[in-house]
Amino acid sequence: MQKPTILVTGANGKTGGATISQLLAKGYPVRALVQRADHRSELLAKRGAKVVVGSLEDITDLHTAMSGVQRAYFCPPLEPGTLRRASLFAATAQEARLEVVVALSQWVASADHPAVHSREKWLSNRVFEWTPNLDVVTVNPGFFADNYMAALEPMAHFGLMGLPLGKGLNAPPSNEDIARVIVGALTNPAPHIGKSYRPTGPRLLSPEDIAAAIGKALGRKVKYQDVPMKLFFKVAKSLGISEFLIEELSYFLLDYQRNAFGIGAPTDAVLEVGGVAPEPFEATARRYVEASGFGRRTFRSNLTAVHNLVAGLLTSAPAPSAIARRLHLPALNHPVFAAESPSWRASHVPEG
Fold it and tell me: CA-CA distance, 92 to 85, in Å (whole number)?
């Protein structure tokens, strides 16, 4: 019996790439939608995916991508326009009569969250739910294990993990474990239709626990230092992180400090839907360290790390409020962080 063809959007991204790898390993035909052709899309094609270059904003591209497809993974970028992309995708999926769409959402998505992206994720969930004759499975991970790895260089060279996480807890899921849930729902959708799953790692970790695990992977002691948000965003700006992402991160990190990502975690979603136990965070860290080469410090890499640190410190601090005004992002009169929202807790945290 021929297996259904599955469309993966965001194919060059964190969960998209991992999803494609796992689907191909299981023998599924994969259509990979990418924004542009580059070395990453070339690798996808060499591994067996049929690559389509197109935009989630262009309905003609979406029709092309969905032609001959039975199931799809919707993974929009963290950029302005999430709701618009979700609406176009839902409408096109309905016209194409897809069997199921697995949609990537977000753990802190809610209607009154201060972050625009969180509100649009919440609305996107509603759009998929309201689309007639379209079965949907929602995957809503929290703070990815991958996020901490952006700071591998200073951890490797200075033994310092400086992030504004406060005392928040997290059970960080790897991209691969998130993909296992996505793939489980795509390959066997019937038991999961209409449900929402939150992939997590196997246990809750403090920032100190996370720093220690990365230190073990690096082969040196790493200390967690809670840093001011302003300093963190200076470094983020120096690394070329977009203004929109910086503005949205300001809210996600405040929710992290309020323990939003520790609430309701860990879960058994990876085992239940993906069929395997989630990997320990240290195993994820070791994989990143091996791929990055930061475990082998050299005189040259030390100089580069010092240069990058100084560049970050000398960069002017971006102001999230000014970014919001410049980008014309709508603000709420009564915003509520997820961790402090009774309605969010009621819909996200199991009773008992």
Answer: 11
